[in-house]
Amino acid sequence: MEFAFIFTKINILIIILAICSPCKFIQSPMDFGSSSLLQTTNTSSIDFGRIIFSPPSAVLRPQSTDDISLLLTFLSASSFSKVTVAARGAGHSIHAQSQALDGIVIEMDSLPSDIHIHKKLDDEHGFSYADVSGGALWVELLEESLKFGLAPRSWTDYLYLSIGGTLSNGGISGQTFKYGPQISNVLELDVVTGKGDLITCSPTKSSELFFAVLGGLGQFGIITRARILLQDAPEKVKWFRAFYDDFDIFIKDQELLVSMPDLVDYLEGFVVPNEESLLSSSIAFPAPLHSVPSFHLSNVYYCIEFAVHDFQVEPSVVEQTVEKITTQMSYLQPYIYSVEVSYFDFLNRVRMEEMSLRARGLWEVPHPWLNMFVPKFGIKEFKDLLMDNMSLNQFKGPILIYPILKNKWDTNTSAVLPDTEDLIYIVGVLQSAAPAICSAECLAGIVRRNRRIVGAASAERIGAKQYLAQQPSLLHWRSHFGGEWNRFVARKARFDPLAILGPGQGIFPRVR
Ligand code: FAD
After folding, report:
1. Which N-terminal residues, if any, form the signal peptide (predicted)?
2. Strand order through the sheet with 266-272
């Protein structure tokens, strides 16, 4: 019964779309009862970037995977239709990647977010894992898995992102050097392809689809379920910050910590361009005054943030681990401090910053962010490039710099990394541009500046690749993928031959 109802509603929409598209024919919400399948909403044309706003013609709020499959089956069978479809997780993209101008946005959060945890028994082979909807948020998975004393191994800094959204990109944070990105910690996926086929895939079953979708920018299919690897969760985390006034020593210490995966559980680093930046990044981690260097002594500092898991078995174990780490470091004495917090609070630290920014009206503002993977050989030159192009004393937002290891990434996935076998730095220039201090012209200037930086950083001597970016043209996309472009195109032809999916990325025009 429900199936028939849903199919009828989708058919109605498609027929109207086929006739009317690209005109914006549905301007007001349409009530389809409790299934609430089709309506337009403002949220589907807005993302965290707040730079591009592309209204769709309609929004699908699926109640099951079948709804998504039906829609894509219908669209791929309709030779007259030119409708595109974008999955929207939490909409935390910067450049409209989850938008679909005049197309259909599928709001993935409407899928039932049941999370099933499998805790491995002592005598059982295999792993503990969670089966979770592609539209669920990482914070929901954390809350549920902690009830079993378990948690995923690899994280993003912010947890209010969807499982399907981060798996379509990579998913990185301070655990990546140790466990790889989130896309290296997935055991199995359910995917609805651009042709409407619902396929369960894994590294050994329909593996081409599995690897295509991971880091695949939403181009090959919609992730409706993911099986995420879990491990024992620590009770608490000992969380450190150490300061530097010398970039070379900062980098050297980061590389030292990467070489100690048995001791260090989390490693990030950031530039501290001004006092305000230090305060705003310390909301979840307040610094005792004497532990923070003064800006009268230097114009810029660097900070390493690392953490050690505390399973509360024997307190001395953590202390000994910390001592082994810190005695080898060369931070600016005496500027180091630590706190001990619950594992949940540690992972959820950016939420506190979000709340503070929201309270000051500074969260829902434009975010012209720039994220780049920079090979070790280019990191110093890239740092100079950043400093030459930005006025640090005015800068609002964090500038992250921390190392990851390429060998923790599976090269079969669609994710793009620089062409190097060595260590890679992720650099995140996470700038806010609140309209009160940055006009539309100023915002456009930042976007142009970012393009300049990307242009210079893509040259061979720096060898950087963008992360989470929308490329301005097909030529840029080809150069972004480099040697993997042909594989990416072949995967598109196989799983979404009409290029229905992921129009917001601006890679493939819809085939009619
Ligand atoms: P959306 O913006 O909704 O979608 C992103 C892309 O994925 C789109 O192309 C969309 O069509 C596609 N997509 C969404 N759901 C699915 C699905 N189920 N199946 C197939 N395709 C899908 N990233 C990191 O790696 N590390 C971080 O530490 C980090 N921190 C962040 C902090 C903040 C405050 C913000 C705003 C972003 C951060 N990000 C980080 C970036 C984030 O991982 C990406 O923007 C990610 O895409 C966001 O997930 P989302 O659910 O909001 O995706």
Report:
1. 1-22
2. 336-342, 236-244, 301-310, 266-272, 399-405, 423-429, 370-375, 465-466
- Contact criterion met (CB below 8 Å) for 40 and 55: yes
88 lines ligand 1 (CB under 6 A): yes
Q: How far is the CA of 322 from the centre of ligand 1 (A)?
A: 33
Say whether pLDDT at 281 is over 80. no
Q: Which atom of ligand 1 is nearest to the CA of 223?
A: 19
* 261-270 mean pLDDT: 97
C-beta of 170 in contact with ligand 1 (< 6 A): yes
157 as an active site residue: the answer is: yes
pTM of the predicted protein model: 0.93
Give the residue, out of 50, 166, 373, with the most ligand 1 atoms within 8 A of its beta carbon, to mutate for a pocket test.
166
- Catalytic residue from among 66, 157, 188, 381: 157
**29 pLDDT exceeds 70?**
no
The distance from CA 409 to its chain's CA centroid, rounded to whole angstroms, is 15
Q: Is there a contact between 205 and 402 (Cβ–Cβ < 8 Å)?
A: no
Q: What confidence tens digit (pLDDT) does each residue in 108-126 have?
A: 999 998 899 999 998 888 9
Tell the residue nearest (CA) to atom 1 of ligand 1.
91
With tokens 């399907």, the residue in question is 164
- At residue 41 the predicted structure's pLDDT band, cuts being 50, 70 and 90, is low
Query: 240 CB under 6 A from ligand 1?
Result: no
Bridge partner list, 132: 115, 226
Task: Let me know if domain 115-232 sits in CATH 3.30.40.10.
Answer: no
Computed on alpha carbons and rounded to an integer, the radius of gyration of the chain in Å comes to 23
In CATH, the architecture of 2-110+497-505 is 2-Layer Sandwich (3.30)
Judge: domain 365-470, CATH 3.40.50.1980: no
Residues comprising the chain, all counted: 512
Using CA atoms, how far apart are residues 506 and 512, in angstroms rounded to an integer? 16
Structural domain boundaries in the chain: 2-110+497-505, 115-232, 235-360, 365-470
Q: How far apart are CA 304 and CA 19, in angstroms?
A: 57
CA distances from 226 to 223, 276, 323 (A): 7, 40, 39
Cis peptide before 509 (omega within 30 of 0): no
Closest CA to 468 of 432, 444, 504: 504
